[in-house]
User: Fold this.
Amino acid sequence: MDYAFYIASAVALVATVMVITRTQATHALLYLVASLLAVAVVFFTLGAAFVAALEVIVYAGAIMVLFVFVIMMLNVSRPIEDAAGVLLRPGTWLGPGLLVVVLLGLMAYLLAGAGALPHPVDGTAAITSPSAAVPAPADAFAISPKQVGIMLFTQYMLGVELASMLLLAALVGVVHLARTHRMVKEVTI
Amino acid sequence: MILAVNPQHAMVLAAILFALGLLGVLVRRNLLFVLLSVEIMLNAAGLAFIAAGSLWAQADGQVMFLFILAMAAAEAAVGLALVLAWYRQTGSLNADAMNQLKDDNNTSRDYEHETAKS
Assistant:
């Protein structure tokens, strides 16, 4: 567990440094996905498996797809064949691919039970490896999704409602900003 | 109380990631890279919340991470829409070209947008 944390941290740092030093936006995006997946492994080793899954789905999935769409819309001047050739060259995907292979090895290591998986305190969804005899007391600090959900919908109910209103406001604002037909004409006259 | 992973090390990792994101915001002039760096900073803030929640074994840290996640999604959508609108108007992604609200008497700095406008 310990080694998994430090290896994932190193992967996250290397990938983040590569993100802010790239010149091509697509390269930076691939490295950012690798960085977010590494941070998800860090969450997992900290005992927050639910948040690790959300990090993969929402950050590395949904938000990165938004960035990919905008980059696709901005690169209109480049010929299509040229862009595909750049993306298929090994220099584009080899670095992030190697970092993600390290993360895949970490995941296989954790799931094979070589390191004890953190399990929830209440023990309802305890995942114990068959080889591990007794779960260490150090693993008892993992927080289950059940605890998070109960707290989210009782204590933090107002926050949930505010988040929904924030997302609705962002949706309306984005629709207004992304309209093309009238806004461009008004400004360029 | 012995933890499998020391949350203070996770705090150090969050601080380094936040500093890297801040460096990206300050150094890069491409608007897309500025937005990517802001995402790195938000993610580092979430990592700090998770580490704190792990340190005290409370679920509050993960709840706050969910709020950060919703806020980051809204921020990315609005920011990318603004970048798109800006690109449609000027044809560039240079953040230094955003000086149209400035007075005209300060003409010592000659950005490429000024020459493109004339």
Summary: Helices of chain B lie at 7-27, 31-56, 60-90, 112-117. Residues 60-90 of chain B form the longest helix (31 residues).
